């Protein structure tokens, strides 16, 4: 059952998608941290292979979010994998970093950053999502200056948050800082999106397409109804086959952390008796749809 669930998650598809790569890396990291020693060997083998794929694909992604996610995955690998697999993964990661550095250097030598007026840059940046806007801020000084324009961050704030959380909006208000602070609040409350959603029509955990099931039949049946977004820990609990009621989810979260810290002497243990309690099939709805900064 664990193998079938893992295959259904299609982690490899997420790794090969530029928009989902960071989510897939974070998901693998959580699987390793919270459930690796509880999974059967065949699933651990697939997780190991996907980790190698994640590092191998890193040069093709070449974004700050992708690099951060890959670094986080490496830390999980180093903390849980046996020595031989850890060394193989480390070599793959180092090779990817070298390739990434060479590709970035070659790209920088040939690229000519367009010198556009600030108002045009701001208009272009107004069409970007948060991750793309943050990446654009690292291109040049003029681009960085344009990405600090308050109107950009006010639009993003209006899109993702409610003005009800703001007590003091005044002329010269720093919308970029306000957006950052709200992201910190959501992150600290662990309301982190995973790029996943649970589709009640096909009863499957899927990589969502703008909070819609990617399957055309489900889109037709659901109309404009959005998927229930899932937290990364809920995806891990799905893999472990653990479901509980919504009323128990809050207390189970703390129990999940405690139980996940109790590891066997060997990370390659065959034991699959223990399970991390948590909610996956009926995740609580929340409004957080912000990529991790």
From TrEMBL:
Gene3D superfamilies linked: 1.20.1280.50
Which domain of life does this protein belong to? Eukaryota
**One Pfam family this sequence matches:** F-box-like
Q: Which InterPro entries match?
A: At5g52880_ARM, F-box-like_dom_sf, F-box_dom
Q: Which portions of the chain have biased composition (kind: Acidic residues)? A: 265-275
Q: Which PROSITE patterns does the UniProt entry name for this protein? A: FBOX (PS50181)
Task: Enumerate the spans annotated as F-box domain.
Answer: 110-156
SUPFAM superfamilies the record matches: F-box domain
Low complexity bias spans: 252-264
Q: Where is this region: Disordered?
A: 248-293
Q: Which SMART domains match?
A: FBOX (SM00256)
Q: What is this protein called?
A: F-box protein At5g52880-like isoform X2
Q: Name the species this protein comes from.
A: Raphanus sativus
- The gene that this protein is the product of is LOC108825793
């Amino acid at each position: 059952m664990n193998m079938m669930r893992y295959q259904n998650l299609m982690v490899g598809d997420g790794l090969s998608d530029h928009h989902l790569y960071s989510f897939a890396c974070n998901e693998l990291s959580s699987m390793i941290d919270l459930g690796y020693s509880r999974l059967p060997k065949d699933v651990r083998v697939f997780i190991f292979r996907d980790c190698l794929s994640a590092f191998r694909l890193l040069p093709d992604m070449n974004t700050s979010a992708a690099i951060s996610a890959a670094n986080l995955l490496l830390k999980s690998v180093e903390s849980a994998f046996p020595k031989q697999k850890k060394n193989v993964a480390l070599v793959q990661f180092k090779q990817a970093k070298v390739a990434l550095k060479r590709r970035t250097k070659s790209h920088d030598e040939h690229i000519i950053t367009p010198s556009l007026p600030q108002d045009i840059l701001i208009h272009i940046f107004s069409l970007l999502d948060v991750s793309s806007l943050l990446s654009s801020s690292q291109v040049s000084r003029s681009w960085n200056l344009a990405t600090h324009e308050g109107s950009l961050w006010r639009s993003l704030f209006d899109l993702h948050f409610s003005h009800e959380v703001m007590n003091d909006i005044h002329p010269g208000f720093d919308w970029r800082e306000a957006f950052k602070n709200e992201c910190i609040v959501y992150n600290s409350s662990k309301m982190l999106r995973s790029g996943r959603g649970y589709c009640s029509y096909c009863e499957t955990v899927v990589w969502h397409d703008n909070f819609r099931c990617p399957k055309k039949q489900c889109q037709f049946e659901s109309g404009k109804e959005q998927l229930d977004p899932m937290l990364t820990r809920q995806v891990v609990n799905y893999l472990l086959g653990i479901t509980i009621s919504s009323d128990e989810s809050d207390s189970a979260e703390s129990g999940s952390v405690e139980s996940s810290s109790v590891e066997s002497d060997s990370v390659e243990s065959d034991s699959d008796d223990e399970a991390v309690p948590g909610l996956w099939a009926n995740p609580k709805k929340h409004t957080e749809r912000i990529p991790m900064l």
